[in-house]
Amino acid sequence: MAASNPVWGLGRRKSAVARVRLLAGSGKILINGKDFEVYFPTVGQQRDVLGPLKATDSRAGYDVLVNVKGGGPRGQAGAVKLGIARCLLKQESDAEAALREGGFLTRDPRMKERKKYGQRGARRRFQFSKR
C-alpha cells in the first residue's frame, strides 16, 4: 500500500465519532494531532485502541491517523477501536476471523436514554409528596 492511497474507516460509540486513516508506515498512532498515549492516558483506553492492531499482528506496519469528536474518553476510545478494525478489514481481508473473534467489528448499540416529560431524567421521577 502506498502513502498516496490511505484506507478510511468510521467508528462510532455512544455519541463519539472517529474518522480513522490507515497508512503504510512505522506504527505511530496520532489522535487529533497528539500521540495516542498522551490523548488516552489510561491503560484500558490504550488497550482498546491497540486491540485490533494486536489481534492482526500489524502494529508496526501501519501509521494510524485519527480525528475523533464527541462523547467522553471511553466512548472515543471505543469509536477509535471500531474505526481501526474497519480499516484493517478493508486492507487485510484475511484478518476478518481474528477481528470478529476479538469482538472488534461489532458496533456497540448502547446509547443514552432520552429524558421523559414529567420526570427529572430518563427514569428518575420528581419527589412525590403525599401531603
Structure description:
The structure is a single chain. The chain is of the alpha+beta class and 131 residues long. It has a single domain (7-101), classed as Ribosomal Protein S5, domain 2, CATH 3.30.230.10. Helices cover 32% and strands 22% of the residues. It has helices at 36-39, 43-55, 73-91, 96-101, and strands at 7-13, 16-24, 29-31, 34-35, 62-69. A 5-stranded mixed sheet has the order 1-2-5-3-4. Helix 2 runs parallel beside helix 3 (73-91). The chain is elongated.
Helix content percent band: 25-40%
**Averaged pLDDT, please?**
93
Q: Work out the radius of gyration.
A: 18 Å
Q: Largest sheet at a glance?
A: 5 strands, mixed
Shape: elongated
SSE arrangement, N to C: EEEEHHEHH
Multimeric state: single chain
**Secondary-structure arrangement, i.e. CATH architecture:** 2-Layer Sandwich
Our count of domains comes out at 1
Q: What is CATH's topology name?
A: Ribosomal Protein S5, domain 2
Helix count?
4
Question: What topology, given as strand order, has the largest sheet?
Answer: 1-2-5-3-4
Cα(first) to Cα(last) distance is 73 Å
Summed up:
This protein has 131 residues and is of the alpha+beta class.
